[in-house]
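Q: Could you write out the predicted structure for this multi-component system? I'm mainly interested in how the pieces pack against one another.
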Amino acid sequence: MSDFTLVPEPTAPLPKITEQEGLLSWVASVDHKLLGLMYIGTSVIFLLLTGLEALLMRIQLSSARNTFLSPETYNQIYTVHGTTGVFLVVVPLGLGFGIYLVPLQIGARDMAFPRLNALGYWMFLFGGLLLYYSFIAGGAPNMGWFAHAPLTAHAYNTTQGVDYWAFGLLMTGIGTTTGGLNFIVTILTMRATGMKLLQVPVFTWTILVNGFLIIGTMPPLNAALVMLIIDRQFGAHFFSPDSGGSSILYQHIFWAFGHPEVYIMVLPAFGIISEVLPVFSRKPLFGYIFVAGSTVAISFLSYAVYAHHMFAVGLGHLFEALFGLSSELIAIPTGVKIFNWIFTMWGGKLRFTVSMLYAIAFIILFTIGGITGVTFAVIPTDWQTTDSYYVVAHLHYVAFGGIFFAIMSGFYYWFPKATGRMLSERLGKWNFWLIFIGFNITFFIQHFLGLMGMPRRVYSYPDVANWSLFNLISTIGAFMMAFAILLFLINVVISLTRGERASDNPWDAWTLEWATSSPPPIENFHTIPPIRSRRPLWDLAHPEDPDWNRSHKAERSVPQ
Amino acid sequence: MFDPVSPQGKSISDLFIIILLIGAAVFLLVFGLVVYSIIRFRRRTVTDTGEPRQISGNTKLELTWTAGTALVILGLFIPTLLVMESSDPAVPKDAQPDVVIVGHQWWWEYRYPKANVTTANEMYMPTGTKFLARLESSDVQHDFWVPQIGRKMDMYPDHPNQLYMRVDQPGTYRGNCAEYCGTQHAWMLIRVNAVPQAEFDSWLQQQQKPPVVALEQAAQGVNAAPATQNPPTGDPAKGKQVFLNNTCINCHAISGTTAVAKVGPNLTYLGKRSILGAGIIDNNPRNLAEWILNAQKIKPGVLMPAYQLSAEDLRNLVAFLEEQK
Amino acid sequence: MEKNRLGMLCFIATEAIFFGMLLVAYLYFRFSSNGGPGPGPKNLDVATTAFFSLFLFSSSFTIWQAERALHRQNRNGVILWLVATVVLGVIFLSGQGLEWSKLIAEDITVSRNTFGSTFFTLTGFHGLHVLAGLIMISMLAGFAIAGWFKGPKSVALDVISLYWHFVDIVWVVLLTIIYLIPLVA
Ligand code: HEA
Ligand code: HEA
Ligand code: CUA
Ligand SMILES: [Cu+2]
């Protein structure tokens, strides 16, 4: 045996999962489709938990000097809410979509390392469980999702919450890293014959860039966590100022992770939007090369902006100005994307499915969030708005209005492929409009709260004019969203049991995953159509006007 | 925006309004294009299955919006630099701070090193001049933020910061600790009393002298509190003994007494303050009594123990503390 | 590129950044507290560590020889060179153990000061990586003895030797920064 690996990865199709194999078949599975769905399902459960926590916070904040939650409980809940939202909802949703879709989109049988893939999922799950176990084990973490030192030191934090937090994130962090590595190898080495690297669907492209972003970004988090753990478990002095350590060093290392992390969250969302908009506009993506290139530009820039989370630290104007400039520059590649999406719709024949509605709403909400992001990059305004509710508004506009809307768009788009059933469009429109309105009610008003001087992370606030009223409005919006999400769950359950059967290609889409059956067979494809352009299924359906032919003559200006 | 009362605050607020206008323009452009596409390019009939023209890009357009965005960014960056200087002027190396502000879990210490005065939770500053603050922390990270006065600035145990403040309009300005610092971060409110220079000087002079309590005052032949003012019912002189005989002195200081500890807020001239517990309750005898009996109930997690005092001791103690005006 | 090799390269990239961050912490404290009082690099026994380092460096050579032997399909050569690599690695690790126990005897520990914290974290994580490498190479040696390697190429050996060279390079960097530069500076 000349090609001997320590742990050979399975090469034959993996056994089909059937009911009689029961629970074990899920636990032991290494099939990317099953793992992808497990990722998504688990993240949705964490979404409900983080949403439940958000509702508790919103009840507490609905009036001044409310006593619904004790300060200690509130602080634990907001910390776990943020940690869950970032690490256990948005990031794994992106990973889950990638793991499910990438092999299908590139015509591969599975991920490059199926076993590693399974390991990644279990690390994510157990990391999350460890975090939540802290509620039972005498106190959840209570220092905010970025855990600035020295509040995490034993002297100020005597419960084990910080330890559970650190170990939990270390586990999910390692899981995420394996995912990123797996994506890179899969996309670079396992594309179907004929598919050039610049012919992969845009979603796959963003996942590839995301893979590189992940392997470059998770190590600083792991390093910060390891140092924190050594501080707390072995009495080291990395982050404790009273014994020579530095609280600001922690911030540098954490945010060197923390900022690229937000692009790890958003890149898959960009990918989803770039798949959905063309299909429902009935046109190819406008400026593929520019969308692909700006994704790379964003990921490079994202390493150079992290200190914009530290403008109030007092690091000197020159240092701050450099990071302010780089943060403002990120608006350029992001703007390129926004305009390309708009011009994808321009001149098309738009079909307003629920998936499309979410995608259009994404463009609008993400632009709002991006613009408030740029106001932070204008450093003096950050000096006023940082650590106020204005930041809370910004982060939910990009994370919920942006990423989560994109995820929902992708959910409605690929649900038929994954399950063989259609989601109800009627219920879907209800949940879209409720969530869209509820979202804006909840978070738009928080901009004003921030500008009126309300700091974030407060369990209670004095009775200043309008604060109670605005907070109450925000709370009402949150309950609207909760209702909308319940509708969505009902829609999923109804569709799974009695939904209309989906054809293989219900949306007349053009990428490879729609060439196989819905749901795909265990080995993904029986035959793969010839790939001569970015839209193999268009070429198949329109032999009179195939992409590969058109790009040669008509639009010379478009690089192919 | 922010209703600024200082030149620094004003320059930020002006900048912010410009940025918001630019942001609104960008948003309206995006929003307008999206809405136009939705209306103009929607599929008219459900049965229409024809495909539109398959256009996949246009390099000229791409360059246009890349350059356009870049120009707007440049337009943002230059005012950024200018306002950084005007809203946070550089501090000369050898400048001595007028006030040292120290964040504690969860209250503020204000030291005036030039006058050797220490007070807590309510800061005084003169209007119309630059006032240099040095920001420190005794434990975790805090952040000093009074929106009307200007920028916020973090406070670290290992990284002192300096901040020029200048207020032109006399008044009381409120703010909050703006960096999460533990259980009671929410109730770490700031109050800055900006008063004309003369008033500030006389305040400082009063603070330099130890407070004299009612009975001692009589002995010294100074007029006691006017009769119109409803005097506290306790005996301040006895209250002083209660204060000194209890563990209060392990944490608090009152100038002119043996209490010199710095763990909790300095209580000299407590009667002049309008709030207790860094803003969680108003300062009046009733609230003060409740605070001493059980501060935990008012401010859960607070780093001050509860006291079981007899009704009389408590009355006297409250009288003593409130009498220092 | 072969997928296992690419995977290992990605893994090495993450590991390099991880060590880089720990090094940043080390340098940050060196520069900010300026040596200060308390133990620092001056308490390290440079000569002994340099001596033991030679064993680690030569193990990079031996694992390369193992690959060449495999290429020539020389089974005994593979076994010999792999075992040699393990022996050299174990000697290096014992040297590290010796140094740690000496320092701890002088009461220089993770909790002594920031130098202790960063020093033990860096060398500790490097040691763990050496240990993991040794376990994998021992397994390879076992497989070779069992006759599973026929050559002329093996992905497993190829990938693990990449890893081993990386661990070696990390030590070159650590040795230079922690031990050698303070000698000059
Ligand atoms: C989840 C994803 C996500 C995304 C995509 C972004 C995107 C951006 N973010 Fe945001 N950010 C967060 C998540 C995200 N952020 C979170 C979670 C926090 C809070 C962390 C915490 O403290 O808890 C945060 C906080 C945060 C801060 C720190 C605030 C503070 O605490 O003081 C800053 C400062 O610069 C910032 C900036 C930006 C910028 C410049 C962008 C840019 O990428 C935005 C670019 C997009 C656009 C600009 C819109 C589209 C462009 C056009 C239409 C072109 C024309 C536009 C112009 C010319 C302006 N963000
Ligand atoms: C990225 C993911 C993410 C998501 C999806 C959300 C979603 C929401 N967030 Fe979150 N939030 C963060 C990330 C996220 N947040 C972060 C990073 C912070 C900063 C934390 C920090 O400062 O450390 C934060 C902080 C934060 C604050 C500020 C807290 C503070 O500073 O004191 C608030 C306050 O309003 C808030 C509200 C909400 C609301 C109302 C939602 C809603 O959109 C939620 C809507 C969803 C639901 C309502 C779920 C539906 C639930 C049900 C139907 C119940 C059924 C339940 C079961 C059966 C279990 N969030
Ligand atoms: Cu002090 Cu928050
Ligand atoms: Cu950021």
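A: Regarding packing and overall arrangement: Residues B 103, 106, 142, 177, 179-181, 185, 188 surround dinuclear copper ion (ligand 3) (CB under 6 Å).
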